[in-house]
Design a protein that fits this description.
- By secondary structure, the protein is an alpha/beta fold.
- The chain has one domain (56-195): 3-Layer(aba) Sandwich (Rossmann fold), CATH 3.40.50.
- It is built from five helices and nine strands.
- Strand 8, helix 4 (171-179) and strand 9 form a beta-alpha-beta unit.
- The longest helix is centred in the N-terminal third of the chain and has 12 residues, at 40-51.
- Keywords: Cytoplasm, Glycosyltransferase, Purine salvage, Transferase.
Length: 198
Protein backbone atom coordinates (compact mmCIF):
# COMPACT_ATOMS: atom_id res chain seq x y z
CA UNK A 1 0.00 0.00 0.00
CA UNK A 2 1.27 3.45 -0.95
CA UNK A 3 2.24 5.64 2.02
CA UNK A 4 0.12 8.48 0.61
CA UNK A 5 -2.95 6.40 -0.30
CA UNK A 6 -6.02 6.66 1.94
CA UNK A 7 -8.84 4.23 1.13
CA UNK A 8 -12.29 5.67 0.48
CA UNK A 9 -13.72 3.45 3.23
CA UNK A 10 -11.61 3.28 6.38
CA UNK A 11 -12.81 0.32 8.42
CA UNK A 12 -11.14 -0.57 11.72
CA UNK A 13 -7.77 -2.13 10.96
CA UNK A 14 -7.50 -0.99 7.32
CA UNK A 15 -3.97 0.21 8.11
CA UNK A 16 -2.80 -3.30 9.10
CA UNK A 17 -2.02 -3.90 5.42
CA UNK A 18 0.80 -1.34 5.77
CA UNK A 19 2.78 -3.71 8.01
CA UNK A 20 5.67 -5.71 6.55
CA UNK A 21 6.45 -9.41 7.10
CA UNK A 22 9.71 -10.56 8.67
CA UNK A 23 12.43 -11.28 6.09
CA UNK A 24 15.31 -11.64 8.58
CA UNK A 25 14.55 -14.93 10.32
CA UNK A 26 13.42 -16.30 13.71
CA UNK A 27 15.32 -13.82 15.91
CA UNK A 28 12.93 -11.08 14.79
CA UNK A 29 9.21 -10.48 15.29
CA UNK A 30 7.09 -12.06 12.55
CA UNK A 31 5.58 -8.75 11.44
CA UNK A 32 6.91 -5.17 11.49
CA UNK A 33 4.38 -2.38 12.16
CA UNK A 34 6.88 0.48 11.80
CA UNK A 35 5.78 1.28 8.22
CA UNK A 36 2.26 1.88 9.54
CA UNK A 37 3.65 4.76 11.65
CA UNK A 38 4.95 6.45 8.46
CA UNK A 39 1.41 6.77 7.08
CA UNK A 40 -0.22 9.94 8.52
CA UNK A 41 -3.84 8.75 8.31
CA UNK A 42 -2.91 5.18 9.23
CA UNK A 43 -1.22 6.29 12.44
CA UNK A 44 -4.10 8.61 13.37
CA UNK A 45 -6.71 5.91 12.77
CA UNK A 46 -4.68 3.29 14.64
CA UNK A 47 -4.42 5.53 17.74
CA UNK A 48 -8.14 6.44 17.49
CA UNK A 49 -9.08 2.75 17.32
CA UNK A 50 -6.87 1.93 20.31
CA UNK A 51 -8.42 4.70 22.41
CA UNK A 52 -12.06 4.19 21.36
CA UNK A 53 -12.89 1.60 24.10
CA UNK A 54 -11.52 3.99 26.74
CA UNK A 55 -13.62 7.02 25.74
CA UNK A 56 -15.10 8.44 28.92
CA UNK A 57 -12.76 6.45 31.17
CA UNK A 58 -10.69 8.27 33.75
CA UNK A 59 -7.08 8.02 32.59
CA UNK A 60 -4.39 9.98 34.44
CA UNK A 61 -1.32 8.91 32.49
CA UNK A 62 -0.26 6.83 29.49
CA UNK A 63 2.75 4.52 29.83
CA UNK A 64 4.56 3.06 26.81
CA UNK A 65 6.84 0.03 26.85
CA UNK A 66 10.39 0.17 25.48
CA UNK A 67 10.82 0.71 22.66
CA UNK A 68 8.08 0.57 20.01
CA UNK A 69 5.40 1.18 22.63
CA UNK A 70 6.89 4.66 22.96
CA UNK A 71 5.52 5.61 19.53
CA UNK A 72 1.90 4.59 20.11
CA UNK A 73 1.99 5.53 23.79
CA UNK A 74 3.25 9.06 23.16
CA UNK A 75 0.71 9.51 20.34
CA UNK A 76 -2.08 8.29 22.65
CA UNK A 77 -0.93 10.58 25.46
CA UNK A 78 -0.88 13.59 23.13
CA UNK A 79 -4.36 12.73 21.86
CA UNK A 80 -5.69 12.41 25.42
CA UNK A 81 -3.72 15.45 26.63
CA UNK A 82 -2.11 13.35 29.36
CA UNK A 83 1.45 12.81 30.48
CA UNK A 84 3.57 10.01 29.07
CA UNK A 85 5.70 7.60 31.10
CA UNK A 86 8.44 5.52 29.43
CA UNK A 87 8.87 2.02 30.88
CA UNK A 88 12.48 1.19 29.99
CA UNK A 89 14.70 -1.81 29.53
CA UNK A 90 17.17 -2.02 32.41
CA UNK A 91 20.19 0.25 32.43
CA UNK A 92 18.74 3.33 30.72
CA UNK A 93 17.31 5.30 33.66
CA UNK A 94 19.70 7.32 35.85
CA UNK A 95 17.15 7.79 38.66
CA UNK A 96 15.69 5.56 41.39
CA UNK A 97 13.86 2.67 39.74
CA UNK A 98 11.79 -0.41 40.43
CA UNK A 99 12.82 -3.46 38.38
CA UNK A 100 10.98 -6.52 37.06
CA UNK A 101 12.51 -9.49 35.21
CA UNK A 102 10.56 -11.01 32.31
CA UNK A 103 10.84 -13.17 29.19
CA UNK A 104 10.06 -11.49 25.88
CA UNK A 105 8.33 -13.01 22.84
CA UNK A 106 11.55 -14.74 21.76
CA UNK A 107 12.12 -16.32 25.18
CA UNK A 108 15.03 -14.03 26.06
CA UNK A 109 15.36 -13.09 29.73
CA UNK A 110 15.33 -9.33 30.28
CA UNK A 111 14.68 -6.75 33.00
CA UNK A 112 12.32 -3.79 32.77
CA UNK A 113 12.56 -0.65 34.91
CA UNK A 114 10.18 2.10 35.96
CA UNK A 115 11.12 5.31 37.73
CA UNK A 116 9.68 5.30 41.26
CA UNK A 117 8.68 8.98 41.36
CA UNK A 118 6.21 8.92 38.44
CA UNK A 119 3.37 6.86 39.89
CA UNK A 120 1.44 7.70 43.04
CA UNK A 121 -1.12 5.41 44.69
CA UNK A 122 -4.38 5.35 42.75
CA UNK A 123 -2.96 6.86 39.55
CA UNK A 124 -4.92 5.40 36.61
CA UNK A 125 -2.57 4.23 33.89
CA UNK A 126 -3.22 3.16 30.31
CA UNK A 127 -0.41 0.78 29.28
CA UNK A 128 0.49 0.79 25.59
CA UNK A 129 2.77 -1.46 23.57
CA UNK A 130 3.10 -2.29 19.91
CA UNK A 131 2.25 -5.99 20.27
CA UNK A 132 1.24 -8.55 22.90
CA UNK A 133 2.47 -11.94 21.73
CA UNK A 134 3.29 -14.14 24.74
CA UNK A 135 2.25 -11.44 27.22
CA UNK A 136 5.49 -11.54 29.23
CA UNK A 137 6.54 -7.97 28.53
CA UNK A 138 3.10 -6.48 29.20
CA UNK A 139 2.64 -8.54 32.34
CA UNK A 140 5.96 -7.25 33.71
CA UNK A 141 4.87 -3.67 33.00
CA UNK A 142 1.55 -4.29 34.77
CA UNK A 143 3.38 -5.68 37.80
CA UNK A 144 5.64 -2.62 37.97
CA UNK A 145 2.77 -0.13 37.75
CA UNK A 146 0.70 -1.98 40.34
CA UNK A 147 3.65 -2.47 42.71
CA UNK A 148 4.02 1.33 42.85
CA UNK A 149 0.29 1.73 43.58
CA UNK A 150 -0.90 2.59 40.09
CA UNK A 151 -4.21 1.24 38.82
CA UNK A 152 -4.22 -0.62 35.51
CA UNK A 153 -7.68 -2.01 36.17
CA UNK A 154 -9.83 -2.42 39.26
CA UNK A 155 -13.28 -4.03 39.51
CA UNK A 156 -14.90 -1.29 41.61
CA UNK A 157 -13.85 1.74 39.57
CA UNK A 158 -13.85 2.78 35.95
CA UNK A 159 -10.94 0.73 34.62
CA UNK A 160 -8.11 1.91 32.52
CA UNK A 161 -6.13 -0.83 30.92
CA UNK A 162 -3.98 -2.18 28.11
CA UNK A 163 -3.75 -1.23 24.42
CA UNK A 164 -1.70 -2.76 21.58
CA UNK A 165 -2.02 -3.08 17.81
CA UNK A 166 -2.47 -6.81 18.28
CA UNK A 167 -3.15 -8.97 21.31
CA UNK A 168 -2.60 -12.58 20.38
CA UNK A 169 -4.74 -15.31 21.93
CA UNK A 170 -1.71 -16.95 23.52
CA UNK A 171 -1.82 -18.15 27.12
CA UNK A 172 -0.25 -14.88 28.29
CA UNK A 173 -2.44 -12.77 26.01
CA UNK A 174 -5.57 -14.45 27.36
CA UNK A 175 -4.38 -13.94 30.96
CA UNK A 176 -4.17 -10.19 30.34
CA UNK A 177 -7.50 -9.99 28.47
CA UNK A 178 -9.31 -11.87 31.25
CA UNK A 179 -8.10 -9.44 33.95
CA UNK A 180 -7.82 -6.03 32.30
CA UNK A 181 -9.78 -3.83 29.98
CA UNK A 182 -8.01 -4.26 26.64
CA UNK A 183 -8.03 -2.67 23.22
CA UNK A 184 -6.42 -3.77 19.97
CA UNK A 185 -6.81 -3.07 16.26
CA UNK A 186 -7.24 -6.53 14.72
CA UNK A 187 -10.81 -7.24 13.50
CA UNK A 188 -12.23 -10.58 14.78
CA UNK A 189 -12.21 -12.12 11.28
CA UNK A 190 -8.43 -11.55 11.03
CA UNK A 191 -7.52 -12.59 14.58
CA UNK A 192 -6.87 -16.29 13.74
CA UNK A 193 -4.38 -15.25 11.04
CA UNK A 194 -2.49 -13.08 13.52
CA UNK A 195 -2.53 -15.81 16.16
CA UNK A 196 -1.03 -18.23 13.61
CA UNK A 197 1.49 -15.61 12.37
CA UNK A 198 0.22 -15.68 8.79
Amino acid sequence: MDLCHVPATREKGWYLALMAPNVKGPNYAWLDPSRLYCHPQGLQDCVADLLQPFQGDAIDMVAGIDAMGFILGAAAAATLRKGFLAIRKAGHLCVQTEAQPYSDYSGREKVMELRTDAISPGLRVLLVDQWVETGGTMRAAIELVERLGGVVAAPLCVPTGVAAICMENSEGGKWIQERYKCSHCVPPRLQPRFDQHQ
